[in-house]
Every structure is written in structure tokens, then in C-alpha cells.
């Protein structure tokens, strides 16, 4: 097999192959990770055509519920790896979305439009996600998709006691409605949901172990690979058993791995924000001597409760989480991650056109600058494409400055 060089990379698929074969050729587990990544959506669509239930979903707290309803969750996040300029063109020309609107929403709408003749027809919307996505759900209904939009309640700082319990009660009712929709009125099997929560907790523990091992072996899983590992934690790529085996294999590899050259000189970084498709950005971090060791957008630090009924466990997991509403909650998670990995810098990443995310990033940047934590705020595209020279130069300069 002829190995690639970084300069030969022309597409996202090239990056996946390069990272699997060239960068991580020593790891069978990471090879499996990229294989699962590449086949995820296509395999889910094949299963759907054969009669298996599948649904487009955010890919987060709701995944145990979806699996308990005998359905494959397919994350919106995978749209970015599939959508190119053609999807953006559809969103802007056919649906008349303004050019300056969020690239994530445009990518998702455009790709759903392109796949509506043969793809998965059900969408689980999340009402609290953002206003442009709320519009997207309504647009897709008119295009023939079966859409259910769940209201995920937000809590403000200091909400506790009776008011907090009211939020839990409301959210529990919302979850039951989702289950009725997913099962076509058959209802939720709570024993299955309890099993899925227990499985989720086991996988979260495995991920925490991998992240601990990365502190000793920061170069064993490079930046692009760890992004997809965390992405897999949200949905298990539609194959829970295979994903579990992958994590076990990766833990075994890392526990027995010798130190790689340069691991003692690495610059630890925390990544706060979405998972963009400009894969060259992650390569630039690695090339400059950095390692993404702390993450905020994919929570893995805490378990779902098993001492309460399973639906209540889901509700409390969301309401007690870092994305429960006010940015102050996620700010605390960023601080915890900085301290845990002894980070020398913070990368704040968001998508072009996302006004909500840009406000949060500016709040965080101001806060951490005042605390003496070096930060860089980046905006990139959600759809596939090569990163601009400017953003690559900024990333490299930031990491090199830290050294």
C-alpha cells in the first residue's frame, strides 16, 4: 500500500485515509474507528431501506432513548462530512436561506433535500437548539419529512427546589411523547431504557479511561481521530457492540503502548466548540506541536443516574448538564478541563453564521483572558472544504506561541 503525504490530501475522505493508514498505522483500533466513521450513515440508510427504524437526531443525551425504542440514531453532525457546496447552494437558492446564515443549518437542510428521495425520513428536532434549526424543522415538514420537535427546557443559574422539580416533570412528559412518536404509539419499554442507560454509563467510563491514558500518551490518538472518537460516543455509529469492542481494544493498546517520540514535549490544549469539517485545522494543531486533550462539547465526565426511574434519569442528566442553558455552566466545564489536562491554551471554535455561538465564545474569551489563559477564537465551515490559509496560519502561530 502506497502511503500518502499531507500535501497529497485534497478532500475529507483523503484526510480520513491519511489519518488511518499513515498517521495511525500502528493502531488497529483507530483503523476500526475510521472504518465505522466512513460507513456510519450509509449503513444506517441501508438498514432503514430494509425496514429498520432510523431517525436523524442531535446525537447526545437522547441516544439511550432512541436505542430503547429499537431505532438507529443518525447524528446531524455527520451531515457536515457529507455536505459540500452543492448542499449549500440548495439551501441558499431553493430554500432562500441568506448567505450569511449558519453554515451548519444550511448544510443540514441542503443535504436532507438531496437525500429525501432515498434517505431516512424521520427527524427528531430539538427546540432549544437554535432558532435557525427551529425553522429547519418546519421547512422539512413541508418537504415530506416526519418531524417531531422536542422542547428541551433550559434552566437559569440558581434554579433549584420546587421550580427545578417542575422543569424535571415537564421534561419527563416531553420524553414520553418522543417515545410514543418513535414507536408509533406503542410506548416506551422502560426496562430497555434502563439497560441503555447502564450501557451508556459503561461506555462513558471507558471513554474517561481513554482520556486519562491520553495524558500519558498524547500523540497516540491525534486530533482528528479523537474528534471522531468523541463523535462515536454520542451515537456509537449505529453499532453499539462494535463500538464497545473498539473502545476495549483501544484501551488495551494504550495501556501497553511505549512513549512515542515527542510526547514529553507536547503542548496540551482544550477545545471548546463544535466539530468542524475543516480537517486541515486539526492537522495544523498536531503539526505545530499541540495536542487536544480537553473537550467541552461532548460531555463524558459524569454518568446518568441509575438510582431513579430511567426517564427521570434522562431529564436530570440534561438539566444538570453543562448545556442546560446559561453559558456559565459550560464555562465551568472549560475551567475543569483546563485544570485537569494542565492546558497551556484554549481553542474556541464555532461555525460561520452562528450568532448564538459567537456571543458565547466572546464571553468565554474575555473571561479566560482575564484569568491569564491564552485563547484563540476561530470560525469555520460546517460543510466539507479545505480550511483557509488564514485560519491555518492563526492556529499554527497560536500553538507555536505557547511553546
Architecture blueprint of SSEs:
Layout: H1 12-23, H2 28-49, E1 53-57, H3 63-68, E2 71-75, H4 79-82, H5 85-93, H6 103-115, E3 122-126, H7 131-142, E4 146-150, H8 161-182, H9 190-216, H10 223-235, H11 240-255, E5 267-273, H12 279-287, E6 290-295, H13 310-319, H14 327-341, E7 345-351, H15 355-370, E8 375-380, H16 389-402
Parallel strand pairs: 1-2, 3-4, 5-6, 5-7, 7-8
Helix pairs in contact: 1-2, 2-10, 2-11, 5-6, 6-7, 8-13, 9-11, 9-13, 12-16
What class, by secondary structure content? Answer: alpha/beta
Strand runs, count: 8
Return Rg in Å.
21 Å
Into which percent range does the helicity of residues fall?
40-55%
Question: Could you tell me how far the N terminus lies from the C terminus, measured between alpha carbons in angstroms?
Answer: 36 Å
> What fraction of the residues are assigned to beta strands by DSSP?
5-15%
Per DSSP, the total helix count is: 16
Amino acid at each position: 500500500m502506497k502511503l500518502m503525504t499531507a500535501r497529497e490530501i485534497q478532500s475529507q475522505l483523503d484526510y480520513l485515509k491519511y489519518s488511518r493508514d499513515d498517521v495511525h498505522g500502528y493502531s488497529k483500533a483507530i483503523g476500526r474507528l475510521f472504518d465505522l466513521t466512513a460507513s456510519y450513515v450509509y449503513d444506517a440508510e441501508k438498514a432503514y431501506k430494509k425496514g429498520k427504524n432510523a431517525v436523524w437526531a442531535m446525537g447526545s443525551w437522547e441516544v439511550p432513548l432512541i436505542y430503547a425504542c429499537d431505532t438507529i440514531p443518525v447524528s446531524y453532525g455527520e451531515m457536515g462530512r457529507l455536505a459540500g457546496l452543492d448542499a449549500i447552494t440548495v439551501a441558499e437558492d431553493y430554500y432562500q436561506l441568506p448567505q450569511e446564515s449558519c453554515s451548519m443549518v444550511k448544510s443540514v437542510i441542503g443535504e436532507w433535500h438531496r437525500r429525501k428521495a432515498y434517505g431516512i425520513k424521520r427527524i427528531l428536532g430539538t427546540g432549544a437548539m437554535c432558532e435557525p434549526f427551529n425553522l429547519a424543522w418546519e421547512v422539512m415538514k413541508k418537504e415530506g419529512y416526519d418531524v417531531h420537535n422536542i422542547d428541551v427546557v433550559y434552566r437559569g443559574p440558581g434554579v433549584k427546589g420546587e421550580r427545578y422539580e417542575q422543569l424535571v416533570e415537564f421534561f419527563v412528559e416531553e420524553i414520553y411523547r418522543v417515545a410514543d412518536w418513535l414507536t408509533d404509539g406503542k410506548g416506551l419499554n422502560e426496562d430497555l431504557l434502563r439497560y441503555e442507560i447502564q450501557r451508556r454509563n459503561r461506555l462513558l467510563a471507558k471513554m474517561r479511561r481513554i482520556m486519562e491514558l491520553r495524558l500519558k500518551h498524547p500523540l497516540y490518538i491525534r486530533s482528528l481521530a479523537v474528534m471522531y472518537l468523541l463523535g462515536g460516543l454520542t451515537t456509537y455509529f449505529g453499532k453499539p457492540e462494535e463500538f464497545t469492542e473498539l473502545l476495549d481494544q483501544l484501551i488495551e493498546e494504550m495501556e501497553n503502548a511505549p512513549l512515542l517520540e515527542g510526547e514529553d514535549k507536547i503542548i496540551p490544549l482544550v477545545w471548546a466548540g463544535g466539530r468542524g469539517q475543516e480537517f486541515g485545522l486539526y492537522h495544523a494543531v498536531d503539526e505545530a506541536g499541540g495536542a487536544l486533550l480537553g473537550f467541552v462539547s461532548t460531555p463524558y465526565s459524569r454518568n446518568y443516574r441509575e438510582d431513579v426511574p430511567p426517564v427521570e434519569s434522562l431529564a436530570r442528566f440534561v438539566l444538570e448538564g453543562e448545556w442546560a442553558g446559561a453559558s456559565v455552566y459550560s464555562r465551568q466545564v472549560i475551567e475543569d478541563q483546563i485544570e485537569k489536562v494542565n492546558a497551556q491554551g484554549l481553542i474556541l471554535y464555532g461555525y460561520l453564521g452562528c450568532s448564538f455561538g459567537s456571543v458565547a465564545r466572546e464571553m468565554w474569551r474575555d473571561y479566560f483572558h482575564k484569568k491569564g489563559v491564552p485563547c484563540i477564537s476561530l470560525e469555520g465551515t460546517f460543510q466539507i472544504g479545505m480550511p483557509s490559509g488564514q485560519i491555518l496560519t492563526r492556529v499554527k502561530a497560536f500553538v507555536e506561541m505557547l511553546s
